[in-house]
Amino acid sequence: MADTFNRKIDELIREVGTGRITARCEVNQPYAQNQHQSVWFNHPHGGRSMYLGGPLLENALDLVASIARSVLTPSGPMIRLRMIEIAETLARYVLENAPKETGQLSLSGHPSVTDNGVVIYDRPSIAPREPD
Question: What is the Cα–Cα distance from 77 to 69, expressed in whole angstroms?
Fold first, then answer.
C-alpha cells in the first residue's frame, strides 16, 4: 500500500510541480500602513482598519480550500490561475474595505503572483502613489 501511495505522490509532483507560489497585494500609499494598523481611527465615510488583513483572515479557510481544489482538476493543475484570482481578490478587499476619506487608498491595491521567484502576474494599482 505504501508503494502505491508513494507512486501517486510522485505522479502528483510531476503533474503539479514543486516550489513556492505566492499571491500578494501591495498597497503603496504613504499613509497605507498607518490606516491599516490604526484600529482607533474613525472612518465616517466608510472603510475600516485592517482593510486587507481583516478580510484575508476572515476568508482564509475558503481561500485555502479553493487553492486545494485547484491542484487536481479535469483540465490539469490550475494553481497559477487560482493564485492570480486570489491576488485580485486581495485587491478587491482593499477596494471594498480601505477607508474612503484618505485619498485614493481604496484604488491602490497592486496584486501580483510569483512562482519560484519568477513574477507570473503583476497588475499595477488603479491609483498612482500620492506624494509623501
Answer: 9
